[in-house]
Amino acid sequence: MAKYANVNELSDSQLDNLLEPPALVQNAETFHDITESVCSIAEADRMPRSWYVLFTLALCFLGVLGAMIFHLFTTGVGVWGNNQPVAWGFPIVNFVFWVGIGHAGTLISAVLYLFRQGWRTGINRFSEAMTIFAVCCAGLFPAIHVGRVWVIYWVFPIPNQMDMWPNFRSPLLWDVFAVGTYFTVSLLFWYMGMVPDLATQRDRAKTKLRQFLYGIFALGWNGSNRHWHRYERAYLLLAALATPLVLSVHSVVSFDFAVAQIPGWHTTIFPPYFVAGAIFSGFAMVLTLSIPARALFNFKHIITMRHIELMCKVIMCTGMLVGYAYAMEFFMAWYSGNRYEGFTFVNRAFGPYAWAYWTMVSCNVISPQIFWFKRARRCIPLIFVISIFVNIGMWFERFVITVTSLNRDFLPSSWNYFSPTIVDVLTLAGSFGLFFTLFLLFCRWLPQVAISEVKNVMPSAHPHGNHGEVNHD
Amino acid sequence: MSSLNRSESTKHYWRSLDHLEETPEFQEMVAKEFPAGPDGEWSDTSRRRFLQLMGASVALGTASSCRWQKETLMPFADRPEGWVPGKPRHYSTSMEVTGVGQALTVTSYDGRPTKIEGNQAHPSSLGATNSWAQAGTLGLYDPDRSRGVLALEGDKETPSSWKSFSAFSKIEFARLSATQGEGLAIVAPITSSPSFLRARRQFQKTFPKALWVDWEACSYQAEAIGTERVFGKAARGIYDLDKADVILSLEDDLMGTHPNAVRHSRDFATRRKPEDGPMNRLWVVEANHSLTGALADHRFALRSGQIGAFLVALEAELLKKGGIKIPEARQLMKNPPQGGFLAKDKVKALLKALAQDLLHAKGKSLVAVGAHQPAEVIARAHRLNVLLGSVGNTVTYADVSRIPTANLSASTELVARMRQGSVQTLITLGGNPVYDMPADLNFAAAYRKVKNRIHLGHYLDETGVVSTWHLPQAHFLECWNDSLSWNGTWTLAQPTMEPLWSGRSATELLGLVMGGETSGEAWVRQAWSDAGLGGETEWRKTVQAGFVAGSSLETLRGTSAPLPLPNMELSAWQASDSIEVTFASDPSVFDGRFANSGWLQELPDPMTKLTWDNAALMAPSTASALGLTTGSMAKFAIDDRSIEMAVYVMPGHAQGCATLPMGYGRTDAGHVAGLVADRVTPTGFNVFLLRGSEALGFSLASVQGTGETYTLVSTQDHHIIDEIGMEGRADRLGDLVRGGDLDEWEQQPDFAQHVVHHPPLKSLWEEHKYEGYRWGMSIDLSTCTGCSACTIACQSENNIPVVGKDEVFRGREMAWIRMDRYFTGSDPDEAEAVHQPVSCQQCEMAPCEQVCPVAATTHTSEGLNDMVYNRCIGTRYCSNNCPYKVRRFNYFNCNLDLEETGSEVLKLVKNPDVTVRSRGVMEKCTYCVQRIQSARIEAHTHEQKIQDGDITPACAQVCPSNAIQFGDLNDKTSKVRIAHDNDRAYAMLGELNNKPRTAFLARIRNPHPSLAAHDSQGAGEVRHG
Amino acid sequence: MTNQTSIHGILAEFDSVDGILHAAEKVKQEGYRKWDCHTPFPVHGLDGAMGIRQTRLPWLVLVMGFAGCSGGILLQWWTNAHDYVYRISGKPDWSLPANIPVAFEMTILFAALTAFFSMWILNGFPRWYSPLFRAKCFTRATDDRFVLAIDARDDLFGEETRKLLESLSPSTIEMIEAPIEDGKIPLKLKGILGIALTLLLLPPAMIANARFTKSTQPRVHIVPNMDTQVTHRGQEASDFFADGQAMRLPISGTYAQEDDRLIGEQVGFWTGKENGAYLSSIPMDVTPEFEDRGRARFGIYCSACHAVNGSGQGTVHLRAQELLSKTWVGPTDLRTDAIKQQAPGQLFESISNGIRNMPSYSSQIPAADRWAIVQYLKESL
């Protein structure tokens, strides 16, 4: 780094920046300030007007989702654009998209926790919540996309009137277990982290009702250190378990495609490629959510520029990983010498779905490159826009993988073009409605920041006497 | 909305969604001559709305009745001897189309016909049929069939009865017989039925002055006239294609729409397997790219009007070679036809080779000519058979002077009389003259001048609605009848069911109006006993067998008398707005009589793959010269008649002309093909509005693009395929459809197995052994004609629903066995076509199975890839993972039409041995597992193994050319085993190591050595679509 | 408060990490056992200061993780390779690779659930009430204060405890007083819980009831599964045909290919008569097999009434007599001369068309078998 060339040229502030990274929590002296700034939101009688606007909007979309699902159940999956040969259309695309979103949460919570990345504390609650809600949306689609939704429970290994068991060779069944486990573990992780904060809110609660409700969910937490001891150990274990899990989930999702023999699907690169993509899109979504949130509930001192910058770096890095995967797919298609593989990829880039392909590439590979520049990594509006781009791009990635591979497979006689119906589009929009409804409710009633953990990384949380050693991130 | 709307009209089908739609756009759509395509606003929304509300109603229905439904048994109080409930019985009967009988065997399930097969023993069938016969059951149970006698007055329909009609006819015909039938006229369809002709003679005795008009759109007088010149009598060429070494077809669709196509295909096939002795060689000269053309070893695309000239040029070539002697040789040699298209070197070479080929195979050659050609051409073509000594060897000519053909002069006469008002009573015995008479006669207008217009018909069709009496006609499965098959075999038809709607046959009606015998059985029986063929026992045996063995027509020997020259049209086509149009019968709906059959409407045209529409077929170059492309509307005009019609660019079509398939644009066919009164827009375009009496075969027309476009829906190339797609297709075609020329095969018989190079196919685990039965199939691409009868047979056998134009447009057709068609060759105008039937390949390592989360599709111990419908939850993953894309998904409840009031009768068409699939279920070819099971039961009761040939899937059973074999691969002697061991056998996409049980046999062609070998299949896919 | 209270313990509140650490060390040195620190976040070093022993949680998780893994594999083996085996893509019934993902997920799931729940259980949660909550200053223990609480039940608890705490210079010291019967669940809550539980029991009770009672209705069948078909199988009713029968009689004068009846010369074979006269002999060649078949058919179709020995004392007859049925006409004794003298043709006709109250058997017994029975009657009976 050229910067270090001549240190004495640097101003003091720059020096500080270099030697000692800016504190994770800024302009908040006492623990109480943290408690105050987080809990006050849930305790406030009114939310900012924008919250109400957004919530109404979200509810409308949720309504649309409901209507679409009713329409679907009463009519049949034909209301979508799916056809022969593109038997999987929007629903599966949306499923993979949402599962991907759902990855950043656990990743931030678990992996960063294991790596003792203190900066995670500002955003982990957020992203965990996001994970839960994203996985809710994801879980919705495989359930409704089947032809006979009323017997969907046959995919679970429970005795049914057919007196048969599911087929464990099918990647779809692996999905059931992977996504199910992932949802459960994420939920436990999220809730467990929230219990001490719920206790805080319980103790601050003014009204009986709040005391009762928060009290119920706080399970009677009283901050006993003997409890803390087991708590921290359990938390560590969950983190340790969640880390391989988060990697496995999207690998398994990628098996849906990789195990099939359709050209463009049948490739071993999928698991890492999908995981990278998932982290990529997950972080993008975290940014998309936290940027407005920190402004709305002024968490600027908790979710600091540093957090955002770090996330930008992660996005740039994973974006390049994804780009590498795209390139590698092409290389392998050519290198394998397989006629059908080769055609599929040429067809992707220059065939009828070229528009989708290039949207994907420009959003996922090109746009994050801007984060090479520090100025870009600190320009909130730009970051916000890029994060949206990445979300769009990642949705299109799934679209490209699913549809362009199917629409022209082995026999030219069955080639056909897939075009979505309005129901497809509205269902997708509706899933966002579901997501944001849940998320806004979370913002309203629950601690959006892990209070106890943030306190934990504050300088004053560390004894200055001879007791224990100072832990720095 | 809906339930109200729906209760309003009596019948609703998946097709009648239109009339639920009340939007103003729809109204004008009806008003407009041409409906918008599926992408048009209205039909799109209406379709969805229709399905939505139907879906809702069904959902509620299932919710309300959450208990097993109670069923009541209705046994026979006194069961007939030998009758086992649920055990199908088989009846021999026949179906007549344009005077040619097709021998059939009808499967009757508890006394209800459910499936139609060919009559194994009958020479013209040998167990096979064409698509029309297959669709017969749907025709029988069509809810649109007229359900009783109607007395019509203007727009008023009053339900009447046979009783009141016979009351009327007694008086009316008593009056007429007093005047010897003055002012009485009959329009009769073409028939060879001895019993009917007997009734007719009797009728003409009673009413000598009555004017009798034989009319059918696809019957040509020219053929009779032409053959008469050579044979002295109207003659019919009965070809033995298996005996012919060289076959020249002058626009005669021998294996396609020819009345005897079924037998032709069988005979032709016997000479197309290189391992079974010498192959024949087929030369085809034609305008349209027909199935026969697709089979040809050498095909020359030529305007219909130039065929005559080509023939004369061929004669000249033969004379030059001194092969034949004809009286007018001198002047023909003096100025042989030259210039024009004959000037081309390619054509010269072709003629040379062809002539040489014909002479080389003298006595073993055969020339066939299309019936729609002018008399001179027909005469010359058949004379050529005489000259080449083919008569008696490869072709026998039979005297058909007793069998009427369409009589144009009589029709003209009739119309004239009607105009004068000198016709008081006109009986239409089953035809539809208002729809299919030449447009210039303007039959409809004159018809209204007749006082008593009596119409016998299956439907209240275009003629029916403007008649005063409409009488329901008995379906061929409902009445006694007889007819002569192409080779003259006297074929009987026995009813397999009581008339559903009190219908009667034409013979019975004649009997009624004559006040004579009204029992069809009696008429047939009488004709039979007149022939003195024996007593009661013989009669019963004949009825059971379905035909009089050995009966035939009198054979004729021709002369080589001089013949007038045909019109010598040689000029090549110059891009102008006037082109030649050929009126062709449609492979799906023929002349429109089969139009209201959903199966046939949805059956993709073998060559264009179009469903639900007809279109003007044009060569790519012609189309582009006229600024037209597939889907653009063009205005065709002859004199003052004109129609607007969508264009389809047909690779390999002759330049400077267009082929217009007839039979569409029905305004009063029914809820399937079009019923404007009930707001069901007609399918396709009515070509009869353009066809004039001056030229029924072909004539010059002016054509102009209107600038409008129309959505043609096909099951292949759904959308315009881009450059990349075409390259990809061309690149892999040779691997999928393998084939080569005869010499290639002689050098390396197993060349087909070395087309794709792949690593040795090893398995990671020990594979299942299939002891016992190991079912497999083989499809010989060398003999498959692409006729698509298998698709309909499968649809009928396996209860495959019809989904409608919009769903086909979305790519959701349901056919279990589809006929893939690819065009090959570098030049679109010279393109060749290959066909490949594709159904489930029953892979031993089926990719579909491992991905199903609920094990709804698994393998049986005999290696069948079973689809368990009621286990399926519809993830559609299996379909994604199927490399052949043969799996079909019920995106909606496709059998909603059965729930409709008034269409309960449709339930009877379903095969009780096959589950009717519900919404959200995947389905696919099962190798007709129900037939395997019944054969197994049969074998078990006789305590023996299933023998080869005991099981025949519907597709194999119907296949006219025997291209499909099915059986036990473990049985070393079984046909299918032998086929699999054939050198030509290959597994499509076998390199994927999914071990398909269906093997394809490579397509071998036999080009003339002297002609440059044309591109073999797959080398360069034609840019089209 | 009215009811008397008791001392639960004493707590000291500190406002810094250092304070609590220092205090904890002291209290530990004093040898207190029943005491605890309550902090808004886990304070590093406090465990050491309090001398808390490592929890055995990880071992539980490890064990359950293994359990999950083996459970997953067992599940898959049982369901796919043992209980209900089917052939999938020609793959072996049991192959591990395909089962790894699920086994892995099960491992994680079990381990995670264990970590989560056993943590709460070891901590004795949920326990919504603690006397500490009575203390005024305790509310801030979850905010920004650090509280050290010594339980009254500790042996060393007494006056000097307070002194000790005071010596640690806390910001506050407070005695924890709480009513004695405190922490008991109020009656109202108990009631609600009771009702909830009984309501929960209702559905299973109803199901059990339905399971063991008979109903006139057809059984409930929510998922249709294409079980009821629109097609008509044998002997079904049809709403289409006027007579309500889906089966249609063959049309007179038509002959199916299977239908060999009355085709061919041997009218006698079918009717038992040849030009008016009964056949005097069996129109088939009589072989031992033929006779055996006759005996067998007789046993199947005739013996029910006519008895195996033809005496006419068949079970049906006996039953009829039991019921003293008025209309019953006893079956003929087939051994009588009247029968013996009948021509085979006549016997055949009787079997075919029935006689008196014996119904026609032509639809049940093929003609050949009827002749076999006749043969049996004639010769063996």
How would you describe what is shown here?
The complex is a heterotrimer of chains A (473), B (1025) and C (381). Chain A is mostly helical and 473 residues long. Helix content of chain A is 67%, strand content 0%. Chain A is built from 17 helices and no strands. The longest helix of chain A is centred in the middle third of the chain and has 34 residues, at 171-204. Chain A is globular, with a radius of gyration of 24 Å. The two termini of chain A are 22 Å apart. Chain B has 1025 residues and is α/β, with parallel strands linked by helices. In chain B, a hairpin with a 3-residue loop joins strand 27 (668-670) and strand 28 (674-675). With 381 residues, chain C is α+β, with helices and mostly antiparallel strands. Chain C folds into two domains: 5-179, no CATH class; 259-379, Cytochrome Bc1 Complex, Chain D, domain 2, CATH 1.10.760. Helix content of chain C is 43%, strand content 8%. Chain C contains twelve helices and six strands. In chain C, strand 5 and strand 6 form a beta hairpin. Chains A and C meet through helix 2, helix 7, helix 9 and helix 17 of A and helix 1, strand 2, helix 2, helix 3 and helix 4 of C.
Outline the low-pLDDT stretches of chain A. Answer: 1-8, 10-20, 466-473
Q: What shape does the CA trace of chain A take?
A: globular
Radius of gyration of chain C: 47 Å
Q: Name the structural class of chain C.
A: alpha+beta
The main pleated sheet of chain C reads as:
4 strands, antiparallel
Q: H/E element string of chain C?
A: EHEHHHEHEHHEEHHHHH
CATH architecture of chain A: Up-down Bundle
Q: How is this fold's topology laid out?
A:
The complex is a heterotrimer of chains A (473), B (1025) and C (381).
Chain A (H helix, E strand, L loop, with lengths): L11 H8 L11 H13 L5 H27 L14 H12 L1 H12 L9 H22 L25 H34 L3 H11 L6 H34 L11 H27 L8 H31 L3 H12 L3 H13 L7 H5 L1 H28 L14 H24 L5 H6 L17
Chain B lengths: L1 H7 L15 H8 L9 H24 L24 E9 L2 E10 L2 E7 L12 H4 L1 H5 L9 E4 L2 E4 L2 H17 L5 E5 L5 H13 L4 E4 L6 H11 L3 E5 L6 E5 L10 H10 L10 E6 L4 H5 L2 E4 L5 H14 L8 H6 L10 H16 L4 E5 L5 H13 L7 E5 L8 H13 L4 E5 L3 H4 L6 H5 L4 E6 L4 H4 L3 E4 L8 E4 L5 E4 L12 H8 L6 H11 L5 H10 L1 E2 L6 E2 L21 E7 L13 H5 L7 E2 L4 E3 L1 H6 L6 E7 L2 E9 L7 E5 L6 E3 L3 E2 L22 E12 L3 E2 L8 H14 L2 E3 H6 L27 E6 L8 H9 L7 H5 L8 E7 L7 E7 L8 H4 L6 E3 L5 E3 L9 H5 L6 E2 L6 H4 L22 E2 L5 H13 L12 H5 L5 E5 L6 H7 L3 E2 L11 E4 L1 E3 L20
Parallel strand pairs in B: 6-7, 6-14, 9-10, 9-12, 10-11, 14-15, 15-16, 21-26, 23-25, 31-42, 32-41
Antiparallel strand pairs in B: 1-2, 2-3, 4-5, 4-16, 8-13, 13-20, 17-18, 18-19, 21-29, 22-30, 23-26, 24-25, 24-29, 27-28, 32-39, 33-34, 35-36, 37-38, 40-41
Chain C lengths: L4 E10 L2 H14 L4 E4 L7 H5 L6 H27 L16 H23 L23 E6 L7 H9 L4 E8 L7 H25 L55 H5 L1 E2 L2 E2 L9 H19 L8 H8 L14 H4 L3 H10 L13 H14 L1
Antiparallel strand pairs in C: 1-3, 1-4, 2-3, 5-6
